[in-house]
Amino acid sequence: DGLVVSENMKSNNADVKIPKSELEAEDRGAEEERPRESDSNILDLSSDYPRDKHISIQRHLADLEKLADLREDERKPCPLCPEEKFKACYSHKLHRHLQNLHWKVSVEFEGYRMCICHLSCRPVKPNLVGDQTLSKMGAHYHCIICSATIVRRTDMIGHINRHVNKGESESRFITVGAPKSSYEVVKESATDVQVLPNHSTPQKTDSYFNPKMKLNRQLIFCALAVLAGERKPIECLDAFGATGIMGLQWAKHLRSSVKVTINDCNENSVTMIKENCHLNKMKVKLNIKEEDDGETVGNGENSDTIEVTKMDANVVMHLRSFDFIHLDPFGTAVNYLDSAFRNVRNLGIVSLTSTDISSLYAKAQHVALRHYGCNIVRTEYYKELAARAVIAAVTRAAARCNKGIEVLLAVALEHFVLVVVRVLRGPATADDSAKKVRYLIHCQWCEERVFQKEGNMVEENPYQQLPCDCHGSMPGKTAVLLGPLWSGALFNTGFLRRMLLEAVQYGLDEAQPLLKTLLCEAECTAPKHFLTQSLGDENKQEECGVYIRTPSTFAESYLVHGKRKSEEVLRSAAKRQRAEHSTEHPPFYYNIHRHSIKGMNMPKLNKFLNYLSEAGFRVSRTHFDPMGVRTNAPLAQFKTVLMKYSTPTYVGAQAEGPVHLPGEIQVGEEVPAAAVVKVEEAELVEDDKSAAAVIKVEKAELAEDDKSAVAATVFTESYPTHCAAE
Fold first, then answer.
1. Is the pLDDT of residue 534 over 50?
2. Which domain holds residue 159?
3. Are residues 97 and 232 in the same domain?
4. CB–CB of 697/677 below 8 Å?
5. Where is this region: Disordered (predicted)?
6. Is residue 440 a contact partner of residue 451, using CB atoms and an 8 Å limit?
């Protein structure tokens, strides 16, 4: 009858015929859509181009009905359903079936409808019922772009949106470069980068760019700038480039001091990195394995060259040696630590950013145990706990390569945990670093904590190491063993000073306040003490109100002129550095709100820091917690000072002032079992002047297990309920 049977219909076991004129028209349209060979943006992924659309993808309902060949006098099967699911029927019933079942729940995209299909296109595991095997026919959709089969309609919509965000075209059924109009140009630190519209969603884009990580990028840039001042030129690697923003900032500001390599395993990301290099007028040095002559020159006067590689991060770190390596994968970075420490040069720097905060912040403890081999719980100092857990994993990875580490910087904020360490080659330094990985004993009642003592001998009563006596006064087990964790210092004061100098020099405004806080935290001094103290150095500068030692003095121990320094010079430099910073900052911190006394107004945080400092303790604020206090005072003394300078929360009380305990109790002495606090009068609210009330607090008993908080108050006299004082 002049009809040709479609090959696709034969594969779907449906006896459907299509007019020959329609097939010829489709062939002519496909030939017109054949891509030009000169179009370099189109990547031909299939040899049998063009590919036919599935029969479930149609423009109009009438086109779907033509496949069924509706005739009033004959029964016709559904072209999208097997015969055992929908038997052949007359045209009026088949029309309702196609309209209500297939067409109504279709997914629309650029004029096409991807109807639901019930054919056996999708492989489904058979169900064994007795001796009979029944093949399950699952409903699914066929993607118009990649011919994938998706079960759910919502998943199909998301699948199509991901194709659109990646710049993949449906007209040719192949991957094409996204049009220039779909790119967004983002500028950060005088560097322009092109990003896709959904750049902030890592699961749906290849070129992930997070504007909230700007502070993280500035801190890493400052660390690299300090290293670039020690020796030139240095080879640095951004192992996970994405858009290439970080490597572009390195090359644009540090220029000839660094040789930048940006790596990414995704082809679309590598393409975007090259385009961003040309956008910033940088030369691009392609990987040796790539085609052409190996170098592509961008337009512009800038002669800086950036090497772009496309391979796995572990592979590129195994093949080459670097002075500076930055790891910023999506999630944890523990899978890349062994490769990073294998070839990093002596006195080089490894920085890693971990964004798996759900496991590090003790929300998924089993994941933290699996990734970091560390047992952690949610505590008031959970952010510092996360930083020490990451450093412990870094230490073990470096020790496996016979290398030790020196922690230069550890920052834990809302979105990430950043750790910057310097690599010290040699088994002796590896042993010294490994000894600083210890377990932590944490009391779950009062949240006192202490690192377990060194040694392999098992103690009969490990609770004796805790300063508190909760185990003696409480039944059962009161403490938990956390770790292993890094027990050493989290900051290097001299390195932070030079980082602050670089931040001021390059105008990194967001990093400067954080670096000042880190400097105060590293020295464990109050901010005003840090600004006024003398550094005892002739070559010093004052930048933004903070004295900064110049690199000519402090960095002298790390400067490399031509050949590497001998071990004796490095050992003397390390001794000199230890002499300058003999006292490390105390580990962990206390939250002032967590230990506030019920019924009392605590003093302002800065005033409380002065009170602790006057009592003879080292004290500073911490970036981990805005209301945290880092101090070497035990928790009992911390609460005693807080109790002394807190005021009762009754109406008409003085703004602030110390509460005088009986017998003039001084800080450092034991608090007696009872304290008497007398309140003579309580004023009424202005709108209630009908009565007067005198409330006398006869006795305030202190609980035996907590010698710093009021446990009970006895009110001897009170007046009617409408009295505001009551």
1. no
2. 57-124+137-166
3. no
4. yes
5. 1-47
6. yes
